[in-house]
């Protein structure tokens, strides 16, 4: 007989319905001390029945998008429910499938419930034994089991009052009358569901009790371990790059020189050292946030070993450019290789941990020994564009993506930075970081001599700049453009902006791309871009600002306030999604405070934020030790120059064997820019948006040669390519969203960048010009005006905000 303490050895098969919350359930199952294997619903039933199920004690069927009556949405789950002989728990879509598997049906709920909470009442038996009455749960669904067509073999075990008609009970729990089959419509795994772990524990107790009846049976239950061939089926990711054989020890080491207690204007240094270079970067903590944005990093692509890599998914070719040699070559990726694999290999090959047999990087600090407080120890600085989704989501992809490339803009680009200047804005220190080949060579090479000359030159400029800015000679910004230079005709490229319906609850279906073309030489464009970035960081300082010039007229200027992901030297992964934004009232302190309080209490914004928090918890549970994933900060409202915004923080410890590149790939695209479930939402957004997003809504930052990473979400960002400027903005759509309010929020987000475009390029910002009524078909068209200050000519952008009722994917969040 199996005793209750043997629950330690319970083996759970978790069926993933291509959902973005499955690994939150995985975390609960692991914490309940079960062995868990995760497979997707598209494995054939006969294989599941014959090869897999004999090795498990219970089954959990995950939530998911769609309708359980559609085979493409539910896969083999109907057969699993009908024919399995071990306990089953269905969650959300899995719960609805219990009804349809036994002849019942589903129907639309009174209203969609996405990221919203409800009180659940129950029968205090089975799954709900010992739970309080009622308890608060989180719901993500627009379909429900129809109580009028409930099969005789099922009974209702939990319910909640309808939000439209409180007298009506909405089914929240089902139980089979003669089999150990259970379902819950709500999400026990959500961070805001009460007693979710208690519910999972009850399922484990039910399993233990049920298995005790099979003592001596022929089930494969004598061994509590899961065979390797079954473990190999799990969708938990392995490292994307594993070195073959023993890698040769690298001779590289790091030289870090510290200049203490200096007041240096980082923009002065960037203009003096790097702005004129063909390739340069500046990861700029324009707004200092202790513990979040203490450091700024800048550098170029000079030096013998430096290079730029640019990648386009359309050709699957990596272009490597060495500006100092004016040399370019292309690499065709292998069929089973992705750019993430390629960059992971580069990070490994240049990794400082390979410099010794103990995996401890060789670092020389000067003039004395000191602890290095920052994480970018040289490495790869760049961006990953949104269309890289076709490689990050390829393992779960069921059909080719339509928008697979943002060509001609590179879908990803990175600068190998072997020389970096660092500013510690908190301690008022500066650092010069340089990657060297030999430790203390007897006869330095020519490259090493150049490195030493560079280090001395940078130190001299830093000291002279510090002397200047510490006195009374603050630098004066001389505008490099003239009135004549600005008399360039501009044209606006219209874009279609669809807004998905309330029922579909899709994030970022509102997408705007304002684009203007300037007839300037590359040097003029770079100079004007620097003017624009100066205005942007001055008027809208943010903790994750950046200016990256990849060369050949490709420049990113960002005032992003949102952290996508960091991986620190201890392997701690952190994500800080932003969802919920309101404009500040800078003229009325009292009203500004009320606006902040209203955001803190907004059901709609909390629902948006909660969905993304649960999504990113899922992403981190995929790559982290599940016992470590936590939410130290939830729904915190932060204040910036022109906005209040709602931010949450999710953390976890990266699993052994995975790297920062693994972490970025497995969590890309950023959940705050897609919505949940991520894969299905990305597929639907392609039909809505009609064109690639490009740099916008991807991420930018660095991979350090010591294993750390720091990436921001690309929002509040201008992109210059081939003398064309584009600014992307979007909005998150939930069931409580108003199309006009979402449109206004999109304009608010654009307004953080467009004044800087106006300042530098002489183009007025985009403002709402006219708003037409929404017709009975649910379609709204909003013309927007853009005006050139030079030619005084109006250029109209037409946006089509299409608001259809989504019938085919009712559980898309």
TrEMBL record:
Organism the protein comes from: Synchytrium endobioticum
UniProt keyword Transferase, yes or no: yes
Protein name: Anthranilate synthase component 2
Domain (Anthranilate synthase component I N-terminal) ranges: 267-432
Pfam family, one: Chorismate_bind
EC number(s) reported in the record: 2.6.1.85
Reactions catalysed: chorismate + L-glutamine = 4-amino-4-deoxychorismate + L-glutamate
GO MF assignments: 4-amino-4-deoxychorismate synthase activity
Residue span of region Disordered: 495-522
Membership in a protein family: In the C-terminal section; belongs to the anthranilate synthase component I family.
Top-level EC class: transferase
Basic and acidic residues bias locations: 510-521
Source superkingdom: Eukaryota
Pathway: Cofactor biosynthesis; tetrahydrofolate biosynthesis; 4-aminobenzoate from chorismate: step 1/2
Keyword Transferase recorded: yes
Family annotation (PANTHER family): AMINOBENZOATE/ANTHRANILATE SYNTHASE, AMINODEOXYCHORISMATE SYNTHASE
Assembly notes: Tetramer of two components I and two components II.
GO annotation (BP), single: folic acid biosynthetic process
Span of domain Glutamine amidotransferase: 13-204
Domain Chorismate-utilising enzyme C-terminal residue range list: 516-749
Record keywords, A-Z: Folate biosynthesis, Glutamine amidotransferase, Transferase
Origin organism lineage: Eukaryota, Fungi, Fungi incertae sedis, Chytridiomycota, Chytridiomycota incertae sedis
GO cellular component, one term: cytoplasm
């Amino acid at each position: 007989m199996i005793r209750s303490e043997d629950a330690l050895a319970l083996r759970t098969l978790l069926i993933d319905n291509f959902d973005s919350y499955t690994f939150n359930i995985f975390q609960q199952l692991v914490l309940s001390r079960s062995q868990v294997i995760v497979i997707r619903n598209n494995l054939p039933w006969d294989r599941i029945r014959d090869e897999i199920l004999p090795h498990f004690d219970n089954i959990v069927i995950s939530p998911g998008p769609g309708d359980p009556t559609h085979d493409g949405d539910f896969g083999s789950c109907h057969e699993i429910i009908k024919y399995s002989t071990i306990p089953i728990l269905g969650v959300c879509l899995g719960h609805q499938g219990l009804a349809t598997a036994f002849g019942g049906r589903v129907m639309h709920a009174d209203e969609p419930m996405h990221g919203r909470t409800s009180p659940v009442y129950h029968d205090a038996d089975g799954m709900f034994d010992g739970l309080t009455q009622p308890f608060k749960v989180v719901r993500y669904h627009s379909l429900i089991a129809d109580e009028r067509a409930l099969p005789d073999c099922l009974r209702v075990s939990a319910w909640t009052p309808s939000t439209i008609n409180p007298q009506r009970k909405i089914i929240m729990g089902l139980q089979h009358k003669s089999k150990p089959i259970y379902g819950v419509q709500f999400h026990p795994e959500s961070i805001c569901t009460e007693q979710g772990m208690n519910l999972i524990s009850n399922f484990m107790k039910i399993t233990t009790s049920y298995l005790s009846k099979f003592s001596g049976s022929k089930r494969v239950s004598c061994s509590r371990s899961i065979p390797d061939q079954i473990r190999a089926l799990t969708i938990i990711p392995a490292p994307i790059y594993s070195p073959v054989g023993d890698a040769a020890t690298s001779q590289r080491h790091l030289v870090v020189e510290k200049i203490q207690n200096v007041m240096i204007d980082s923009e002065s240094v960037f203009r003096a050292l790097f702005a004129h270079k063909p390739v340069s970067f500046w990861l700029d903590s324009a707004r200092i946030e202790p513990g979040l944005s203490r450091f700024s990093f800048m550098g170029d692509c000079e030096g013998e070993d430096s290079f730029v890599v640019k990648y386009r998914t359309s050709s699957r070719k990596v272009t490597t450019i060495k500006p100092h040699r004016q040399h370019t070559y292309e690499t065709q990726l292998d069929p089973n290789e992705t750019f993430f694999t390629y960059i992971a290999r580069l990070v490994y090959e240049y990794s400082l941990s390979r410099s010794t047999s103990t995996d401890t990087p060789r670092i020389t600090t000067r003039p004395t020994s000191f602890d290095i407080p920052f994480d970018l120890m040289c490495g790869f600085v760049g961006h990953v564009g949104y269309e890289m989704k076709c490689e990050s989501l390829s393992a779960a992809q069921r059909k080719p993506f339509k928008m697979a490339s943002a060509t001609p803009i590179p879908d990803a680009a990175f600068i190998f930075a072997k020389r970096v200047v660092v500013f510690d804005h908190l301690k008022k220190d500066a650092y010069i970081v340089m990657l060297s080949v030999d430790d203390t060579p007897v006869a330095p090479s020519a490259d090493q001599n150049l490195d030493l000359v560079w280090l001395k030159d940078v130190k001299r400029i830093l000291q002279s700049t510090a002397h200047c800015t510490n006195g009374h000679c603050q630098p004066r910004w001389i505008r490099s453009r003239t009135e004549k230079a600005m008399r360039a005709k501009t044209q606006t490229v219209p874009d279609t902006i669809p807004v998905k319906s309330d029922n579909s609850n899709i994030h970022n279906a509102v997408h705007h791309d304002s684009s203007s073309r300037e007839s300037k030489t590359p040097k003029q464009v770079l100079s004007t871009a620097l003017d624009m970035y100066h205005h942007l960081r001055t008027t809208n300082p943010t903790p994750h600002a950046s200016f990256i010039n990849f060369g050949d007229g490709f420049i990113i200027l960002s005032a992003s306030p949102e952290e996508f992901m960091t991986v620190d030297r201890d392997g701690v992964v952190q994500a800080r999604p932003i969802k919920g934004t309101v404009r500040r009232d800078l003229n009325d302190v009292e009203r500004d405070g009320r606006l902040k309080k209203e955001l803190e209490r907004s059901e709609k914004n909390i629902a948006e934020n909660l969905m993304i928090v649960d999504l990113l918890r899922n992403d981190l549970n995929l790559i982290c030790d599940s016992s470590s994933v936590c939410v130290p900060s939830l729904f915190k409202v932060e204040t910036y120059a022109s906005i209040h915004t709602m931010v949450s923080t999710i953390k976890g410890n990266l699993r052994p064997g995975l790297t920062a590149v693994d972490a970025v790939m497995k969590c890309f695209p950023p959940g705050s820019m897609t919505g949940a479930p991520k894969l299905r939402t990305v597929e639907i957004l392609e039909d809505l948006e009609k064109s690639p997003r490009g740099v916008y809504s991807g991420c930018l930052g660095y991979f350090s040669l010591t294993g750390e990473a720091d990436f921001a979400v690309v929002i509040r960002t201008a992109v210059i390519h081939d003398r064309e400027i584009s600014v992307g903005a979007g909005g998150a759509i939930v069931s409580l969203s108003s199309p006009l309010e979402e449109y206004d929020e999109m304009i608010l987000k654009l307004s953080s960048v467009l004044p800087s475009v106006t300042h530098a390029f002489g183009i007025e910002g985009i403002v709402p010009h006219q708003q037409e009524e929404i017709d009975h078909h649910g379609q709204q068209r909003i013309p927007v005006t853009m005006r050139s200050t030079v030619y005084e000519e109006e250029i109209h952008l037409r946006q089509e905000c299409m608001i259809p009722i989504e019938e085919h994917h009712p559980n898309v969040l």
